[in-house]
Design a protein that fits this description.
By secondary structure, this protein is an alpha/beta fold. The protein contains ten helices and 13 strands. It has a five-stranded mixed β-sheet with strand order 2-8-7-6-5. A four-stranded antiparallel β-sheet has the order 9-10-13-12, covered by helices on one side. Helix 2 packs parallel to helix 7 and helix 3 packs across helix 6. The longest helix is centred in the C-terminal third of the chain and has 24 residues. The chain is globular and about 60 Å long. The model has no long low-confidence stretch (mean pLDDT 96).
Length: 351
């Protein structure tokens, strides 16, 4: 077919499996095991459907203003989108147009190379060291932009803020994106650096720490100039990307800081307990600062463990890729879910 020659072909991102059967322990997509803040449920219960016949606020002002207050920023420094994937994809399209390769790690969020391929952006993957840490010097060369997830995924490793600042300061002629999807579980945000670096864009999400993966809310924070450019591109696609219910629910989530901190602490406590149990069973892993653990067993095959867990209706994530084929990414669930995981692993590894 002659028309097929002109189709934009890419290898798409492969998301974690979403089983239709709800009777599984789902530890494969880093979702929060606890419900959203009570105020979110209240917004949904009391939502006036009459509002839906009109277009939503194209600026999502209620949510933008709530996020600005939460982070101590002016609203001109906040951009919202339909999940952080939407925000990141828009950022790639907006900022990475120099023709020079952008830089990101060889082991990181696997959507980065998909967006680069989709938008025909050249890129170079920088190899993490043997401990899955970035090497600062790899990002101190000429480039067309930098993207770093911190803490990184799927490794869970945190890069210190001082190291990130060195990279940002050395690359002020390009945009540096720091993807902080997991920062609430033990990292230190780069938001404090926004006032100093006009080229820094910090991206966060409601999908993990705020238990709203199904609502699709992501946002970026940066200089007013960066945010203006993002909005210009967004409004060239679709002005009305966020619906009124999502805007209201997102604002309600941000308003309940006590609930947010309480449930972050619960996830972190379960993570640390799970680390101790996995170590007892012969797993090795880095010091995860996320809501998952990236672990390899000293003797058992990751693929075999993955398949055995799946047969037991416990879903975790495994990639059959160079350098990480021996690892499983295990999301943190409730204490009861993690107890069932550990009990099964204890039995399986005895065989």
């Amino acid at each position: 077919m002659s028309w097929e020659k002109h189709v934009r072909k890419v290898v798409p991102y492969v998301a974690g499996e979403q089983p239709k059967d709800q009777d599984v322990i789902k530890l494969n997509t880093n979702e929060n095991p606890y419900p959203p803040a009570p105020g979110v449920a209240e917004v949904i219960r009391n939502f006036d459907c009459e509002v839906l016949r009109k277009y939503p606020d194209l600026n999502a002002a209620a949510l933008v203003d709530a996020l600005a207050r939460h982070h101590g920023l002016d609203s001109s420094k906040v951009f919202v989108g339909v999940g952080s994937d939407d925000v990141l994809a828009m950022s790639f399209l907006t900022f990475f147009n120099s023709g020079k390769p952008i830089l990101f790690p060889d082991i990181t969020y696997s959507f980065y190379d998909v967006w680069a391929d989709l938008y025909r952006i050249p890129y170079e993957c920088q190899a993490l060291d043997e401990d899955f840490c970035i090497k600062k010097e790899d990002y101190l060369k000429e480039n067309g932009g930098i993207v770093l997830a911190n803490p990184n995924a799927p490794t869970g490793v945190l890069t210190e803020l001082s190291v990130l600042e060195e990279i940002i300061a050395a690359n002020q002629d390009v945009v540096v994106i720091v993807d902080e999807a997991y920062v609430d579980f033990g990292g230190r945000s780069c938001v404090s650096l926004i006032e100093r670096y006009e080229n820094l864009l910090v991206v966060q999400t409601f999908s993990k720490s705020r238990a709203l993966a199904g609502m699709r809310i992501g946002y970026a924070m940066g200089s007013p100039k960066l945010i203006k450019y993002l909005n210009d591109v967004k409004f060239s696609f679709n002005s009305y990307t966020m619906n009124p219910l999502t805007i209201a629910a997102g604002a309600a989530s941000v308003a309940d800081e006590a609930y947010f901190q309480e449930h972050i602490a619960k996830v972190v406590a379960t993570r640390e307990r799970t680390k101790r149990e996995l170590a007892r069973l012969g797993f090795v892993f880095g010091d995860s600062r996320t809501n998952f653990i990236f672990a390899a067993h000293k003797t058992a095959s990751a693929k075999e463990i993955f398949e055995a867990l799946r047969a037991e209706r416990i879903y975790v994530r495994h990639w059959d890729k160079p350098r990480i084929a021996d690892y499983l990414r295990i999301s943190i669930g409730t204490d009861e879910e993690m107890d069932r995981l550990i009990a099964f692993l204890e039995q399986f590894l005895r065989k």
